[in-house]
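Box S1 | Example of a co-folding query
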Amino acid sequence: MKSDRITLRSWRDSDAETLYKYASDEEVGTRAGWQPHRSVEESLSIIKTVFNNPTTWAIELNETGEAIGAIGYGPSCDCSLPAWEGEPTVGYWVAKPFWGMGICTEALQMIIDYVKKNTEISSLISGHFIDNAASGRVMEKCGFIATGDICYDQTLYMGEDKPIRVLRLELQ
Ligand SMILES: CC(C)(COP(=O)(O)OP(=O)(O)OC[C@H]1O[C@@H](n2cnc3c(N)ncnc32)[C@H](O)[C@@H]1OP(=O)(O)O)[C@@H](O)C(=O)NCCC(=O)NCCS
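Box S1 (continued) | Returned holo structure for coenzyme A
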């Protein structure tokens, strides 16, 4: 998937150093509930495991070819979101130097268009820590609506007792 500015593509082992550069930033992962990466080796391992599936993409900046973030969707069964039967969860992050440029909104809209065109999925769910309003704004700009639910997920890094605001996008 490609726009003038970004391309969503599979992660490559050769992205490991760039991934470490951006995902070791304390301010990125902690907002999303994952631990900052501690070494290039750990980043490579995440590329080979967590990112190694057909619905997780690197957000590549066309101008530089760098992977500056990740976006994807997958089964909701192992998280605390109040998902409907078979409803996937969406997740994303963008490297800090690129925040506030509309990149995540553009990437999320590309995912939504992909899901509509290529799948039978009828809705997507996601959530954000309530002190991470920027993430909620990204979803709202793409049409997600707050369900009114607040959930907690103690399996998330630094997530203990942190309220999560739940949003959903109905596609059909
Ligand atoms: C959340 C995140 C993905 C947003 O990426 P981004 O590319 O900067 O997002 P966009 O530029 O497309 O949109 C951000 C929106 O949030 C708004 N925003 C930024 N900081 C905000 C704040 N503190 N309060 C309210 N809105 C805020 C921006 O103004 C913008 O909205 P606008 O276009 O209406 O002005 C990025 O900050 C990030 O990766 N954060 C760390 C990881 C994370 O939080 N992942 C999501 C976990 S649920």
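The pocket of coenzyme A is lined by residues 28, 31-32, 92-94, 99-105, 128, 132-135, 137-138 (CB under 6 Å). The chain has a mean pLDDT of 96.
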